[in-house]
Amino acid sequence: MNSPKKLKFLVVDDDRQLLKLMGRLLEARGHEVVLSHAGVNAVIEVPEEHPDCVVTDWVMLGLNGLDLIKELRAGDGCDGIKMIMVTSRLDAESEAEARAAGADGYIRKPIDPANFAETVEKMALDG
Question: How many CB atoms lie within 10 A of CB 32?
Fold first, then answer.
């Protein structure tokens, strides 16, 4: 099933299997997806790719997802880009920290393949 609006997503996760799964789920709804396996790469890729939305894992080696969001929010050219955190951090304090850093959405792992893409899509469109 396709989304009513085609979006461009940049998905960041150091777990390559999960990264590919999230990408396939979003592509199945008709979206364009760029995959990135490291936060440091995403800092470069976001300005080059101009996604509508960045979906990032929190816990990654090097630049983690929280710092990635902070860096992107502090930089030029990221206004209007939605940022969604996907993480195994289940506590309310972590969600509050992610939102304070600039995350527009927060999804807890493990993801549910049945509704992941639709959930991300709604967050990307509605905030």
Answer: 14
Whether 120 is covered by a domain: the verdict is yes
Distance CA 27, CA 34 (A): 10
Q: Judge whether 1 lies within some domain.
A: no
Alpha carbon distance 55, 33 (integer Å): 10
Tens digits of residue pLDDT in 5-31: 899 999 999 999 999 999 999 999 999
Q: Is 59 part of a structural domain of the chain? A: yes
Contact (CB, 8 A) for 64 and 86: no
81 touches 51 (CB < 8 A): yes
Residue pair 104/82 in contact (Cβ under 8 Å)? The answer is yes
Is the pLDDT confidence value at 3 over 90?
no
pTM here is: 0.94
Peptide linkage before 51 cis (omega within 30 of 0)? no
